[in-house]
Amino acid sequence: MGKDRQPFIGIFGRRNNGKSTLINRLAGQEIAIVSDIPGTTTDPVKKSFEITGFGPVVLVDTAGTDDIGELGEKRISRALQAIDRIDLAILITTNNLLGEPEEKLISEFRKRDVPFLVIHNKEDLVPANQNIEKEYVNRGSSGFFKLKPALSTEPIIDAIRQTIPESAYTTPTLLGDLITPGDIILLITPIDIEAPAGRMILPQVQTIRDVLDNDAICIVLKETEAEPFLKKTGIKPALVVTDSQVFAKADKITPKNIRLTSFSILLARLKGDFSQYMKGTPKIDELKDNDRVLILESCTHHVACDDIGREKIPNWLKTHTRKQLYFDVIAGLDNIKRPITDYALIIQCGGCMITRKQLHNRLKPAIDAGIPVTNYGMAIAWVHGIYSRAIAPFQRKPK
């Protein structure tokens, strides 16, 4: 697997510890605002740069986690939220400090399984004592560095290369373990009110590319053309992948001896916690009157009158369960306003617009609280009675 996405590296620490200065030194150019005034950085600021011998990364400069006042609390909240989106953290400290702000950050890093490096900055003013490195290493730091203006940042760059997890910059295959070279893969892609003008949605594009990358043959049809095509040509695809919205129709027109799944379920396996989805989906049948369901859309888009997340899924669930259910929809990575324990079920979209880490961190509070989680495609397959067929392609032993 090659490097096909840019890892995110978050820079954290108290105000005026030199976070922005470090970013400029690492990048070799002035890309972050530097000031002696504490609190210059407000919202997280992102900037890409190239690490020689590794590839592009995105540095995320965050506000000081010792900020004060009502505005300061909001800045701290934004800084902590940034942890959900990063693959590696760099914690900047000075003056041998290891207090509540540092402990809070380390706790959040470990909670989200984010590796972190520690830099004791301004070493020329107050050198690190012999115990502070041990204290940070004991708390899980993957490296401790002493930095002053005259010292090279190359050891830090090298540690970044070594510490960023491979999963941060590689994307596993969608279909590689399900198909073989020369297989014919049929994709059913409705062109409806939600389809973007003049192009296809990202999961469809990703699937087409993955089919080609695995030396298979890709045939793309609208749902109205799929049945005539299969009857006229006699072609037996190795796999049919459909948009979840037409799952029921695809099930009817696809012969039972041909494997069938959806774009959303492919993404659920690629990015989501598939085992938790498998456990959570059957819980749909345990929903009770007045239960509240949370629907997580990981992108923002124009809402159509027949929107999949806001209209179709809620209606299908209410019809299937015959229960009075209430729904909240959160778009993008916005905060969930209610306590997670208010929900009886959480339904996550495929997550094509966010990283695997972001999606896992998005669902982790619910999973930790024992709230069932599922995915758009899996939930739709369940309420249409085709769940077992839809997940069957993933239950055979991989090649």
What is the share of helical residues? 25-40%
Number of helices: 14
The total strand number stands at: 14
Strand order of the largest sheet: 2-3-1-4-5-6
Strand content: 15-25%
> What is the count of distinct domains?
3
Query: What is the general shape?
Result: elongated
**How would you sum up the major sheet?**
6 strands, mixed
**Rounded mean pLDDT score:** 87
Structural class: alpha/beta
- Using the coordinates shown, work out and report the CATH topology of the largest domain: Rossmann fold
Rg, nearest Å = 24 Å
What would you say the CATH architecture of the largest domain is?
Answer: 3-Layer(aba) Sandwich
Order of helices and strands: EHEEHEHEHEHEHEHEHEHHEHEEHEHH
Q: Would you identify the CATH H-level superfamily of the largest domain?
A: P-loop containing nucleotide triphosphate hydrolases
Low-confidence stretches: 31-42, 301-305
N/C terminus separation = 17 Å
Describe the structure.
GO terms for molecular function: GTP binding. It holds the Pfam family HydF_dimer. This is Iron-only hydrogenase maturation protein HydF. InterPro entries: FeFe-hyd_GTPase_HydF, GTP-bd, HydF_dimer, HydF_tetramer, P-loop_NTPase, Small_GTP-bd. One of its GO terms (biological process) is tRNA wobble uridine modification. The protein has helices spanning 19-27, 69-81, 100-111, 132-138, 154-163, 202-213, 223-233, 247-253, 263-271, 274-280, 308-321, 356-368, 376-383, 387-391, and strands at residues 8-13, 45-51, 55-61, 88-93, 116-120, 144-146, 184-188, 217-221, 239-242, 259-262, 292-296, 326-330, 345-348, 373-375. The chain is α/β, with parallel strands linked by helices. The chain folds into three domains: 8-168, 3-Layer(aba) Sandwich (Rossmann fold), CATH 3.40.50; 184-266, 3-Layer(aba) Sandwich (Rossmann fold); 273-386, 3-Layer(aba) Sandwich (Rossmann fold), CATH 3.40.50.11410. The strands form three sheets. The protein has a six-stranded mixed beta sheet with strand order 2-3-1-4-5-6, sandwiched between helices. Strand 4 (88-93), helix 3 and strand 5 (116-120) form a beta-alpha-beta unit. Helix 11 packs parallel to helix 13 (376-383). The radius of gyration is 24 Å and the shape is elongated. The model is unreliable at 31-42 and 301-305 (pLDDT under 50).
